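Hey, can you fold this one?
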Amino acid sequence: MAFGIKRAKKKPAAPAGKETPRTPDGKKKKKRGGLAALRRIGFSVLVTIAVVVVGGVLVLRDQAHVDLGSGAVGSIFAPIHSAVTSATRYVRDVLQGAKNYIKLTEDYELAKREIDNLKLQLQALEEEARENDRLKELLGAKDRYMTMEPLYAQVIGRSNSVWLETFTINRGTRDGVAPDMAVVTGDGLVGRVLEASPTYAKVMSIIDTRSSVSCLIERTRETGVMRGETSGRSDSQECFMYYLPSVNNITPGDTVLTAGDDSLFPKGLRVGTVASISRQTDVSDQYIVVQPFVDFVHIEEVLVLRTFVEEEDKQLAPLPTPTPRPTPQPTPTPDVEEKPAVDPDSEIWSWPSPTPDPDQVVATPQPTPTPTLDPNGPVEDAWAR
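Sure. Predicted structure:
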């Protein structure tokens, strides 16, 4: 018995058709995988050692005394050091550029928001400046029309067209606004109140085709009737003035004012200027073109003149009842033959009282009858009834 003797295990036979490659001398080829790994590890170690040595030499060497060995080492490893430095600098520049780009992006967004806010503030300031200019003009107009009790109002609605033929203001009967009151701006006449409610009123402008205003030429004092000739399809705001004398001295550029004889508008309100004059042969067809002072596209605030309508109402009030005529009373006729007596104790003259005659009959005064009014008599008698 052979105890403790181990039999060698047989290697499995190579599969048929596959044999281990052999060298020309008959020896088997060895695998080269492990050798390649060792070579890579060795090269990495050498490069690391070289970098460390070069770095140490460059750091520890004295710039004033460079020996031959240091110079040789430096000459050998200078390209490697330069390449590493360039690569490091490039990576650093890339990272710094990325950081700067992110910061610039944030700064750009912040600056853009600030610019937008500044634009909004600038627009608000410009709007306030324009509003201040309009209010200054209205303030000047308010001073001019102070005797007419001007009322400030804002435009809150407009017609569906380019021109403000009709528009709505935020004042009504609760503020004293009534129909037919004149509406003006700092530039001139706008129109009149068409209808009014407690909190708002509707205004018809002078360029509306339904509008009619009695006007006069300031220089020549010739009067006529101005009518609106502007609609939603018109290219410009114009009015035509009719019923002028056939022979006149009107020229383009003359100022047109309200005449004040139509019981609607006060006299002397600025309306516009003469733009052109028609050359019609028929007097009834002759007219002049008036360019209004007011811009009927950008009206935002107006003044309502309230006093003129109130004065008109006072003129149309009923006449007072006349006082009846006094009834004549008989006056006693003094006696011409009698002379005044003089009081010896006074210098005042006095008439003596007549002595009644007992034989004379004294007439008793009778009441005066009320006169009968003649229907065809004077107008005052008709008022007395």
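The chain has a mean pLDDT of 74. Let me know if you want another pass with a different chain boundary.
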